Every structure is written in C-alpha cells, then in structure tokens.
Amino acid sequence: MVLQKRLYYSFNGYQVPTKRRATRSARRNATFQRRLEDNQMCAFDLLATVADNLLQEKQNPTTYSDRSMGKDRDGFVKEECQNANKPLKTELSDEASCDRRCQHEFVKEGCPDANKPLKPELSDEGSTDRKGFSNISSQVYNQNCCLKEFPIHEIEGHSGIASIVTSSSCSEKFVAEKLVDGKGQNGTENLASKVELGSSGSPESIGCKLDGDVSKVKDVKFGKVPMDTGTGLCCSEDPLDEKPAALISSCGNAKLSGYDDSIPHSSLSKGCDNMLVDSRDDDENFSGCAHPSNKIKSTRPITCIDDRKIKKRLASKYHKAAQESKPDKLSNSVLDGNLKPVYSNRKNYYKSQRSQMNIPFKKRKLFKCGSDTNSNGYIRSGDTYFSLKNETNQSVSYSSSGMSKDHGTSSLGHSALRSRDSHVKLRIKSFRVPELLIEIPETATIGSLKRTVMEAVTAVLGGGLRVGVILHGKKVRDDSKTLLQTGISHDNHLDALGFALEPNFSQNLPPACATSSLRIPSADMPQPFIGYPSSPAVIHQRIQGFSNTLAEHQATGLGNLVESDHDSAPSPINTLGEKILSDSKELITVPEMGMEALAVLPGHQKSKRTEIAQRRIRRPFSVAEVEALVQAVEKLGTGRWRDVKLRAFDNAKHRTYVDLKDKWKTLVHTARISPQQRRGEPVPQELLDRVLTAHAYWSQLQTKQQLKHHSKPCLLL
DNA sequence: GTTAGGG
DNA sequence: CCCTAAC
Fold first, then answer.
1. I need a labelling partner for A18 at 20 to 30 A (CA). Which of A170, A404, A418, A585 fits?
2. How many whole angstroms separate alpha carbon A289 and alpha carbon A277?
3. Reduced to 3 states, what is the DSSP secondary structure of residue A410?
4. Alpha carbon distances (Å) from A492 to A252, A397, A488, A552
5. Where do the segments described as Disordered lie (predicted)?
C-alpha cells in the first residue's frame, strides 16, 4: 500500500527528530534500532546464504572458529593485549586476511583506551582501513564492556564498520554491500550503534569482504554457526570461552560486548538473529531496562532467533505496548506456542511511549522487510516461519511471490525447520494500514493533506499496533492456541490466513475520530509500558473499531475478514458512520499524537512515555467546529462551557467542555494576533471577528456582574 | 462535576 | 491538550 511507504518515510523523518543529543544511550538506541532494521534485512539474506552454504558444504564452522581463533587469539592476545580479554576478533581479522600487525597494533593501542580511540581512525581511514577495523575490533573485544561507552557518533561515522557489526553473520552480504557502496544504506550509519557490539570482528571481516574474501567470512560464520541449527544462523553458542568467536559473531559479540557486558560470546554465532534480538534488547537496555538480552542471548537457543525476528518485525512495538505484561499476544497469536518464553517475556519496555516510538522504527523495519527484504526474511517464531512456505514443502503464502524463491530463505528455513516438527512458513509482504478517515478542507494545501495523512497514520502507528491473525475470515483471538490447533498448518492453505495490524489499545478508542472512525487509542490508553495488562475484551472492542483496518494481503481475500471482528464487540465503527452522517460539521479527525511521541523516542522515553501514553490525540478544530463554537458562545456566553458543549458539541465525544473552553481561549488569542502569526488551519476572519465581539461582550457583561456582586454584598453589609 | 487559568 | 486550583 501506498501508506506503507509513507509510513516508512514518515517514520524515518520522525526518527531523525527523535534523535536527541540528549543522551548517549538514547541516541544509541535510536540509531541502533535503525541499524538493526536496516541490517536485518541484509542479515537475512546473509543468513540465508550462509545457511545454504553450510548445508551444502556442511563444513563445521565450530572447528574453524575455535581452532583458528584459539591460536590466533592466544598468540594475539598474549602479544598484543594481555589486558584485553577478548582477542578473538583479532583472530578473525587475521584470518580474514587482515594483518596481524594491524591487529596487534590495534590491540596495543586499543587495549589501553579501546573505547574511544577508534573513532578517529575509523573516520579518517574509513571502513576500509584495516587498522581502523582492527582497532575497532580490538576495542570491541576489549570491551566487551567498553562498547557501551562507545560514542555513537563514532560508530556512525564508520558506516562500514557498523554495518558489519550489525549484520554479523548475516550481514556478510550486507556489509559487503555497504562497503562497496561506501556508506551503504542509510541504515549503515545507524549500525554504528551496533557496531559497538560487533565491531570487533566486523571490521576485519569487512575488509575481507571487500577484498572479495567472502568465503572466509562465511567460513567463519559457519564455524561459529553449527550446521545443525535449523536456524541456520545460530550456531548455538560458541562455547569458546567467553571470548567471542569473534569473526563470525562479530556482530553478536559486538552486541554483547557493547550492550551487555555480561553477554556471552556465544551470541556471535547467532548473527542476524541475535542482532535483531539484540537490538531489541539494546533498546531495552538503553531505555534502562535490565538487559534481558544477556540472558536471552546467552541462553537462547538458536530457535530463538526467529522469534526475535518475528517479534521485532511484527510485533516489536505492538508487543511492547500491549503485551509487555502479557507476552503471548503477538507471539502466541502470531507465532505460536513454540515461541520461547524468552522473548515473550520481554521485559517491560519502559514506557508506552517508548514503545510507541519504537513502533515506527519497527514498522519501518517491517515495511522494509516486507517490501524489500521480505524475500529473505521470514520471521520465525518459535519455530514457525512466517514465510509462506510450509516448512518443507508447501508454500502457502499469501503473497503470490513465493518464499520458495528465496533460496536463502528456503534453505535456512528448511534446515531450521527440520529441527522442529512441522513449521508453517508465512510470508507477510506488507500490512495494510487501517482505514483512516480524514477530513480536510478543499482549500488545504497538498502539504497539509500530506501532513494530515501522516498524522493519522502516525497516530495509528504511534498508538501501538498489534497483530491480528485472521483465519478463514475470522479473527483468531485465542493467543494460547497453537497454530496447529487453530488450523494453521502446513497442510492447510495458508491463503486463508491473514494478518492485520490492529490498534493496540489498552484503553478505549478515544478518539475515534470524531466521528469516527477508528482511531487509535493509544494515546488515551493508560497502558503503557510495562506489564500493562490489557483486558482482552477491551482490546477487542477497540480493535473492532479498527477492524476495518485489517487487511491482509494482496491476493488472498483477507479483506473480508476484517469486519468479522465486529461481531464480537459493539463496534464503534457503526457509530461512526452515523455520526459522520449526522454531524456534517464534525471532523473526522486525524489524530496525530504520534509526532510528539516520536519525537520523544530517543531518550527519556520513560518518563515521557508515561505521560504521553495517556495524552489524548490532538484534534485540531475544524472551521466548522469553530463556527459552531462561536455561535454557541455568542448565545450562551463564556463561562458556560458545559452548556456550550451540550449545545454545540453534544455529539462530539472527543470535545470536552474544557476543550471548548481552551479552544475559545486560543480563538481569542488568534483573533488578536496578526494573520501572519497564526498557525494551522486558517480560521475565517469573519469568525475571528465574531469571536472578538462575543468575547468583548461577555467579558464586559461578566465584569459588570462581578461588580454588582461585589457591590451588593458591600451594600448589604 | 465545572470553571478558570497556567503550562 | 493537560493539570490544577477553586468553586
């Protein structure tokens, strides 16, 4: 859908603003997320490729990594940095073809002040520079801990590095691409944050790649990643001590090191998945949450990866918002019971806001993935892949474009799948954006139209979305059911299966737009962040409101499904229609809350989030509303807002008398300032004149009355 | 629950 | 729009 694109862009745009310089962590977070998103796509491809290779070659990665690493490392470590605990990367680099010298140097240099020295080098030399890489890597390793401290900018500056890190195993391609491109995608930069994580290994690996040493890279990865992993990517962990297998894991390691000090290197192997997951974790961490990631990473089985992806892509935000407390919703519903609790348990994302904010990112990701990357990536929840194919054979996908095409995917999927019983592969190419009702004056500019649409979309997204599963036209609400129980199996025609983005509210749909439609409640919702338990019932209703929204894909006629929901709950929608018809005046509005929330994203999410979460969506008054307000005030006067509300806005639920009072206040102010100073939708001068007149009249009257009151008592006394 | 006003 | 004091 067009909207997708818009959303995508919009998010990006928003994101940017969101980046605040305020906090390192915040910045990191934002950038990190982005990178992750960008990287993910790549990662998938890489993973797929790797997986294929592995399968075909059946090499044993583990050996590779261990061996090579071991010696190199030791030697390296001993020589260069004794201090540094994590020489692994260096090895990688060596293997990669990097010069030991460089490494050593790096190490030496890096060890002492691993944290920050890198930057300069990187920036100067660029990603290609081995030294730079080595430095980075060394730092990373050293750090395991230090990374955290890495300044994002540094990383960002070195897109190449960052990218590498991020993608880790998966990213090989990614990295390569980026390197080639130079900066690579936008995302690359973002990666930087990640870079921290993986940077260590990555730089070198990157270099190799550049050099054309793909094979090496893969090998490394492989080494790290065990063949068996159905997940392909992950190789479970490298037991190598904690030192990261380095190369392969560069990403993973990096993450670990960067994000979680404690995180085990094992994550390396995980590569892409980790990344995704990590990213999430990172987010959390950044936000201040405890880092679950460590646990996850270290502990997580390979399978987790998929889940992560899924979550991230699909749910990430939504989940957070809605589920945080309840792990299952998305994961369960969409994914399946198989999912590991690990992720499902996400920690609380701090705040709803954050989550909201995140959504965009994630969405972005989703979109991207969907459109661009999808091919590669399916998400695997637990064991389920959402690509269209069934695990082994059938490709049931909505999208006409079959997943089967993706070699990478398929191969990975299969391998991964094998490990588990049967898996259902689903491919979600894109999500349709819920229906939005927008009312805008003919005189509005295209720009304002765009903004309005954006706001509406943002509001929806910002409010938090959740994923709805539709099967045979019916919403599947029982999150606890397994796919099998629900009838979603490889044996079935997945075309009957649909996914929808639904508003995830915890509260009521507040806004339903004036009239409207569905809206997104998020703003109103109290839900927030952590553990906010939302009652299913409520949710459903809300959803209903939104129900229109769903949509699923292209080919399949999921569309029908959408409304099915209504049945369960009384839908606001119906009302909407009525309202709309009845109140021509009312706006249908477009809420925008998203912007604000987004802006906040990066940093302080917590506090703000909370606040924002509850804030109502902003619904600018339309000229018609203003006209009605003026008329009512002229008749009733100021100070009787409740009456005004009843008289002129009785049917506008979203307009409280306080709102009307505030609007009047602003109208008076607007009328007094020069037209050039006015913002927003212009209000006819005629109305403003009436505002001033009425205001003067009633003010005068009020004054008189007050005088009377005062005087009277005095007199009486 | 309303108003009024500051933020 | 939110928040709060005051009514």
1. A170
2. 14
3. helix
4. 37, 11, 6, 18
5. 396-416
Q: Which residue has the tokens 């290197």?
A: A265
Protein residue nearest nucleotide B2, by CA to C1': A642
Query: Rounded to an integer, what is the distance from CA A335 to the centroid of its chain?
Result: 17
C chain positions with any atom within 7 Å of a protein CB: 1-4
The H-or-E segment that residue A466 falls in is strand A465-471
> Which two three-digit tokens encode residue A373?
């990357």
Q: What is the pLDDT of residue A477?
A: 73
**pLDDT averaged over chain A?**
45
Contacts with A179 (C-beta within 8 Å, 6 or more apart), sequence order: A127, A128, A160, A163, A206, A209, A210
Of A257, A187, A248, the C-alpha closest to A36 is: A187
Which of the 535-574 residues on chain A come under 7 Å of nucleic strand B at their beta carbon? none
Q: Is A210 exposed, middle or buried (0-12, 13-18, 19+ CB in 10 A)?
A: buried
Phi, psi for A426 (deg, rounded to 5): -125, 140
Give residue numbers, 641 to 670 of A, with CB < 7 Å from strand B. 641-643, 657-658, 661-662, 665
pLDDT of amino acid A222: 33
A647-655 contacts, C-beta under 8 A, 24 or more apart: A649/A625, A651/A579, A651/A582, A651/A583, A651/A586, A652/A514, A652/A515, A652/A583, A652/A586, A652/A625, A653/A512, A653/A514, A654/A510, A654/A511, A654/A512, A654/A513, A654/A514, A654/A589, A654/A616, A654/A619, A655/A625
pLDDT digits (tens, 9 = 90+) for A523-577: 333 332 222 233 322 233 233 233 333 333 333 332 232 222 222 233 333 333 3
A399's torsion region: left (phi>0), alpha (psi -120 to 50) or beta?
beta
- For A615, other C-beta atoms within 10 Å of its C-beta total 16
User: Highest mean pLDDT range out of A137-141, A144-148, A642-646?
Assistant: A642-646
Question: Is the per-residue pLDDT at A634 higher than 70?
Answer: yes
Q: How many helices (H) and strands (E) would you count in chain A?
A: 35, 5
Half-sphere exposure of A323 (CA within 13 A, CB side): 27
Structure tokens at A550: 């769903």
